[in-house]
Amino acid sequence: MSSSADQSPMDESSTTPTNEEEYFEDQPPVEEKKPKSKPKPLKNKWRFWHEKVTTGDAWKSLEHLSDLCEFGTIQEFWSCFNNLPDLSHLKVKESFHLMKNLNEPTDVTTKVQHLKIAPAWEDPYNVNGGEWVFRIPKEVSDTVWRELVLAVIGEQYHSVLQPGDEICGLSVSQRPTDNVFKIWNKVVGTEEDQKKIYSRTIEILSEQIKNISDSIQTPYYKKHKE
């Protein structure tokens, strides 16, 4: 009869896990760390604004405008945009604006202005331009707002703009039965120049919304300075 002393170390190790084996069995799986993506810069910096309802000449002080956030990269944009409330949260006649920030001072701006273009006709950068104005049903307004914001910051109007012109901003304003959209450009140009901007808008929205031409109501172009 063999004693316990006769049992070989090999037999014992085959049935009893080592301390190292026990350690690895008790540990959760290690997750592979993904490298952080590098910021992807946009061609221009932009800023979101909120506009409250104003009465009389209160608009002249611009106190009804709230500076929400600035962004210059794709990552910063989504951080800003995803924190904006849905359009349904706007009160009647309140607005959201997306306006370009200037990269450097020009003949009509100074560093004191922090290179912000205010969503106002009277802003020196906007005074010689105009805007396309149209109404959109509420049920597709959030989609229109998102697609036009992406188009503007992605410079998707560049191919149809005359030399010296640019898209300065985009606005949406709450109304009782629909929403009013405005696309701001820097230079009025000719009637043909204006039509190209509107046609490009239809092309952009048609990619996501069927029969968008039927949804756009009362479109017209308005000059900021007559």
UniProtKB/TrEMBL annotation:
<feature type="compositionally biased region" description="Acidic residues">
    <location>
        <begin position="19"/>
        <end position="29"/>
    </location>
</feature>
<dbReference type="GO" id="GO:0016281">
    <property type="term" value="C:eukaryotic translation initiation factor 4F complex"/>
</dbReference>
<keyword id="KW-0396">Initiation factor</keyword>
<dbReference type="GO" id="GO:0003743">
    <property type="term" value="F:translation initiation factor activity"/>
</dbReference>
<dbReference type="GO" id="GO:0000340">
    <property type="term" value="F:RNA 7-methylguanosine cap binding"/>
</dbReference>
<keyword id="KW-0810">Translation regulation</keyword>
<dbReference type="InterPro" id="IPR001040">
    <property type="entry name" value="TIF_eIF_4E"/>
</dbReference>
<dbReference type="GO" id="GO:0006417">
    <property type="term" value="P:regulation of translation"/>
</dbReference>
<keyword id="KW-0694">RNA-binding</keyword>
<comment type="similarity">
    <text>Belongs to the eukaryotic initiation factor 4E family.</text>
</comment>
<dbReference type="Pfam" id="PF01652">
    <property type="entry name" value="IF4E"/>
</dbReference>
<keyword id="KW-0648">Protein biosynthesis</keyword>
<dbReference type="InterPro" id="IPR023398">
    <property type="entry name" value="TIF_eIF4e-like"/>
</dbReference>
<protein>
    <recommendedName>
        <fullName>Eukaryotic translation initiation factor 4E</fullName>
    </recommendedName>
</protein>
<feature type="region of interest" description="Disordered">
    <location>
        <begin position="1"/>
        <end position="41"/>
    </location>
</feature>
<feature type="compositionally biased region" description="Polar residues">
    <location>
        <begin position="1"/>
        <end position="18"/>
    </location>
</feature>
